[in-house]
Amino acid sequence: MNSGQALETLHRIDREYRCLEKAAAVLQWDQETCLPAGGVEERAEQLALLEGIAHERLIDPETGRLLAELGSVPENPRGDRALPEPERDFLRVTRRRYERAVKLPADFVSAAARAGGLSQAAWAGARRANDFASFLPHLETMIDFARKKAAYWGFGNGAGSLYDGLLDIYEPGMSASETGGLFAALRERLVPLLEKISLCPPPDTSFLKQDFPVEQQAAFSQRLMDYLGFDRGRGRLDTSAHPFTTSLGSDDIRITTRYFPDNILSGLFSVIHESGHAFYEMGFPPELRGSCLADGASMAVHESQSRFLENVIGRSRSFWTGCFPLLREYFPRQLKSAGAENFYRAVNEVKPSPVRVDADEISYSLHIIFRFELEKRLIGGELAPEKLPPVWNDYTREYLGLESETVADGVLQDIHWSMGSFGYFPSYALGNLYGLQILKKLKQDIPAYESAVAEGKFSLLYDWLGENIYRWGCRLEPGELLSKITGEKLSVNPFLEYIEGKYSELYGF
Ligand code: ZN
Question: How far does residue 274's CA lie from ligand 1's centre (Å)?
Fold first, then answer.
């Protein structure tokens, strides 16, 4: 077989695997948005079977053979036998994925998928009942699966810790010590800033403490998606316990949010956040459709897109200059006496909350840093899962100066650990860093971007993001992508400069 035929076969196997993966994602989406409680057990069986089949497709011995054969093709782009660049990237991603998958026994993969389904359902029930004990056995199982997975990949045995192995799933090449270094630098400047702000008079948020009917919020969300330029021919919005985005196909990107009548900001900012993820997914170029390259460079780069849209754009003065009049159309009574400037100040109120997704931009990173510390200890075996609730409270007090009143809004607030997604949390805070470092370049390239945002003209922004980020899919590793855009390595400084500049102006110091 020549290298062209070998690649063609690899692409076919990749497309089939993607189809199975997307079919499983449909079942998962349905589980999160509308599955009746009675359907949970059978759904777990269905998912386990489908993921088992997908895994078999992934570890097809033909893939191993073809990868070995193509491994001898020179990587020099000017060499005669060299492959065009996208194909080399395809091979790199395929090889990494194959080598990971082939090391996991099939029965382990099915068992992990089944346990994950049950664990997520148990988490949702435990959260509703504010009952950690009913979730504990599932948490222990998920930790065990995560540890075993990293061990199968060779971590925890000299070459990096088990936790390094889990981090690497979401942020290729980033170690726990590198992450810890960035986080220590963040914490060092964010904690005193939080203390300083706590001494300043807070903005007026009284107009937010009213009843915002859920139906009206849902209607506004649709309007907001249109305002942001969300192509609803290629996606939709639903509700779930925990907001998320999932791609069921190149032209079928689903986002979710959740509504609280006494908190309009939660649902609204989730829509903006998840739209940021969706635009990234919708922006992969046609030539990558259906291939493993149509994916984010990493979870942190994905979060850089969602958190950028949510915070840098969605919590900016320019954004609310344009969008506040629309919001007021939906809530004329509640927002009668408020203006765009009040609203801007109110949505940037710095007030640590025990709930991560409702946290302000400053305490948000602190939420992530302590989850990183906790999951590192859970995976390292230094913290017994049953000790988690009191230790969670200690961390909440130490990092945020708060007491968690319930486990539902404390240790049970996030879905991640119930899914076995240990190592995922750092992506959010790293995403902030990527986002602000990228903004520096965006501002140089489009000095007028803020006035475009104020006029609700976002296409300028998406075009730039498309040109610099979306079009690459996961062809570049996160560090390469950042360096291609900015010429720099990941750093905490642009984020901290943005935070310090914005909040010293808002709080007048
Ligand atoms: Zn996100």
Answer: 6
The four Cα atoms 266, 271, 277, 282 give a dihedral, to 10 degrees, of 180
CA–centroid distance, residue 300 to ligand 1 (Å): 9
Q: Using the mean position of ligand 1's atoms as its centre, give its distance from the Cα of residue 116 in Å.
A: 20
Count structural domains, the chain: 2
Distance 339 CA to ligand 1 centre (A): 29
- Looking at residue 72, its pLDDT comes to 66
**Is the domain of 360 the same as that of 409?**
yes
Domain at 357, CATH number: 1.10.1370.30
Residue type, 32: E
List the helix and strand counts (H, then E) for the chain: 20, 3
Q: 309, 458 in Cβ contact below 8 A?
A: no
Q: If you measure from the C-alpha of residue 394 to the centroid of ligand 1, how many angstroms do you get, rounded to a whole number?
A: 26
464 has a pLDDT exceeding 80 = yes
Is residue 418 in a domain? yes
331 assigned to some structural domain: yes
Is the pLDDT confidence value at 369 over 80? Answer: yes
274 is annotated as an active-site residue:
yes
Task: Output the pLDDT for position 113.
Answer: 84
Q: Is the pTM of this model over 0.90?
A: yes
* CA–CA dist 115, 109 (Å, integer): 10
| 406 and 464 assigned to the same domain | yes
Q: Which domain holds residue 122?
A: 3-153
pLDDT in tens, 278-310: 999 999 999 999 899 999 999 999 999 999 999
Same domain, 269 and 353: yes
Q: Long-range contacts of range 209-212, CB-CB < 8 Å, 24 or more positions apart?
A: 209/262, 210/334, 211/261, 211/262, 211/334, 212/261, 212/262, 212/263, 212/264, 212/331, 212/334
Q: 229's torsion region: left (phi>0), alpha (psi -120 to 50) or beta?
A: left
**Sign of the Cα pseudo-torsion (446, 451, 456, 457, in order):** negative
Indicate which residue of 274, 281, 303, 361 is catalytic. Answer: 274
On whether both 183 and 147 belong to a single domain, the answer is: no
